[in-house]
Specification:
It is built from six helices and two strands. The protein has about 150 residues and is mainly α. It is about 60% helix and about 10% strand. It has a two-stranded antiparallel sheet with strand order 1-2. The radius of gyration is 15 Å and the shape is globular.
């Protein structure tokens, strides 16, 4: 059993707290997280998988198997790739209702918005919205198939 959404967010908060609010170290760490994101197959980098509302290109694909949604993601910029990797870490491998109901409090607890600026904050919001839309779509599909 994987850790709860809350537990994963608390792990992330602990990791960022070690950076002591240092802007350069925080941005560097976000970029490092992006480098650790598993490679997304180029065949998934399609127009349909581009997250609308992001200034950078962000591709997000969802698969539904055994009652859980797994996400593949990538971006053409290092910082944005790091941001989407945090969301994938928290929300991948979850049931649709968990994603729909998720309270993503880690962003405010870390103070992430002051490090990434308005454009990326808006993009992060668009990524979260898209993941929740996938959750709704798969929840509806799952209900119809039962």
């Amino acid at each position: 059993m994987s850790a709860s959404i809350e537990a994963v967010q608390n792990e992330i908060i602990d990791e960022f707290s070690m950076l002591d609010g240092d802007m350069e170290m925080t941005i560097g760490y976000i970029m490092e997280l992006g480098e650790q994101l598993p490679a997304m197959d180029d065949s998934l980098k399609t127009e349909e998988n581009i997250v609308k509302g992001c200034q950078s290109k962000v591709w997000l694909n969802a698969n539904f198997s055994d009652g859980e949604i797994s996400f593949d993601a990538d971006s053409n910029t290092a910082i944005t790739k790091g941001l989407v990797s945090l969301l994938v870490r928290i929300l991948s491998g979850r049931q649709p209702h968990e994603i729909i109901d998720a309270d993503l409090f880690f962003i405010d607890k870390i103070g992430l918005n002051r490090f990434i600026g308005t454009q990326r904050s808006n993009g992060l919001g668009a990524m979260m919205k898209q993941m929740k839309i996938y959750g709704l779509a798969f929840a509806t599909q799952n209900t119809k198939s039962q």
